Amino acid sequence: MYYLNRCIAHYCINGAKMREMKTDAVTRAVRDLFIAANQELGEDIVRKFETCAKQESSGTAAGVLKELRENAKIAREEFSPLCQDTGLALLFIDIGQDVHIIGGDLREAVNEGVRQGYAEGYLRKSVCSPFTRANTGDNTPAVIHYDIVPGERLKIIVMPKGGGAENMSRVVMLTPAAGLSGVKNAVLETVRSAGANPCPPIIIGVGVGGTLERSALIAKRALLRKMGERSADPEIAAIEEDLLKRVNELGIGPMAYGGKTTALDVFMEVEPCHIASLPVTVNIQCHASRHKEVVL
Ligand code: SF4
User: Whose CA is nearest to atom 4 of ligand 1?
Assistant: First the structure.
């Protein structure tokens, strides 16, 4: 994570300190983060490829994991994208309640950063009209999830999201009687039916509770966790471990050639929901799980 302090000033309104931040700083940060995210796979994921390769009894499965590690190394060293699908531009922006953004429209500043990053980084533009399929030409508009948080900082997280894994994700509205076993079955069935399509080994974000859209949002944000980072709730952590074991027992394996490594990890977020509902989202992420963040 980077911390930047450019383009920033403080002032007071009725004794309350506000921090000014120019939209130019946001545009530059978004541009740099999307280029870096597409070239630098997280070290935690690269290490996980190595660990899983040692555990594989199949030479093909181990070989695929070694190729993925090598691909990540080449991308980082040669400043080239990890994958031809450089993703839809997805962002989480946590805005400190004591930040005052000046110099223009925040959404437009983000989209300008996406435009510049995808042009300067020679990244594929993958955004189009859903019906005509006409490409927007610059990978905008970005999908931006905002949150207001305490403090005077702005945190920007970028996640270029590939289409193959996103397409295999599911939202299911279970009945409350389905319970934990229903949630686990939804995860296992989603992974089983996805097969080779999301380029396994995958990472699985599970959002349980809230409403339909809230379950999807927390499932997606769960994908930002580092490999092995278990839920702070011991009961949820145990569910994550059980699901990871059961997903890997499906035997789909790296790139679906068979093996023990169908998923690198499972992350579950849980929130309260309506007494009549049990929303569940299974958001699948491929092995090219790209995300970077900065705090301005
Ligand atoms: S699913 Fe992931 S690894 Fe596969 S093509 Fe899409 S972005 Fe690339």
Answer: 199
In which residue are the tokens 């300008």 written?
112
Please report the atom of ligand 1 found closest to the CA of residue 161: 7
Q: Is ligand 1 within 6 A of the CB of residue 296?
A: no
Instruction: Check if the beta carbon of residue 117 is closer than 8 Å to that of residue 35.
Output: yes
Question: Positive or negative, the Cα torsion across 268, 273, 277, 283?
Answer: negative
| Model pTM above 0.90 | yes
Q: What residues contact 285, with CB distance under 8 A and at least 6 apart?
A: 161, 165, 198, 202, 203, 204, 205, 223
CA dist 65 and 255 (Å) reads 9
Q: Is the CB of 124 under 6 A from ligand 1?
A: no
For residue 276, pLDDT beyond 80: yes
For the chain, percent of residues with pLDDT exceeding 90: 94
Q: Could you give the 3-state DSSP secondary structure of residue 88?
A: strand
19-37 residue pLDDT tens: 999 999 999 999 999 999 9
Which residue's alpha carbon is at the smallest distance from atom 2 of ligand 1?
286
Ligand 1 atom closest to Cα of 164? 1
The residue to mutate among 83, 169, 204, having the most atoms of ligand 1 within 8 angstroms of its beta carbon, is 83
